[in-house]
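Re: beginner question about structure tokens

> Can someone show what the tokenized structure looks like for a real chain? I only ever see the sequence side.

Sure, here's an example I had lying around. Input first:
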Amino acid sequence: MKKIIITGANGVGKSHFAKRLALVRPDVPVVSFDAIKLRTGWRQRPRFETDAALASTLEQDAWILEGGPSLLAQAVAKADALVWLDPPEQVRGWQLATRPWKNLGRTRPELPPGNVDWPWQQYRFALRSLRNRSKFHSYISEVFRSADGLKKWRCRDESDRSAVEHAWSDHSG
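And the corresponding structure tokens:
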């Protein structure tokens, strides 16, 4: 296992979990899909640029790719494993509520420079995401079900995440 995708809706802890996996296998780089698709000021790159940059990343020998469900169509075919972070909604809601305050006035490490967390902006984005949760859930669920040939985990809690971490460390050889 050299190529693993960590996906889920925003606020589920994808970046945090990717960092945990990188601690287990520091030779495997973490790639944030947000870093690929964003410019400064929360502006998105044109789709063709994002697709080309993601395709280039996917050709690498090893990676931990973390990001929302929009990366799945292009990335699943290149991966060895798929992790769907799917905590209970109250856990996700709490994480969405507290995240802007942890990074107040700063750019999170997984983002390109100039994408500063301010609570009002992040809360608007979080509310949109929460309204679209059934759409995200349905799409990820369908990709997860149909992704044959991959090692797959649907992580609802810390014990599920620990199982992924253990399997990832077992394949470090």
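Each token stands for a local structural state, so reading them left to right follows the chain. Residues 6 and 66 are 5 Å apart (CA to CA).
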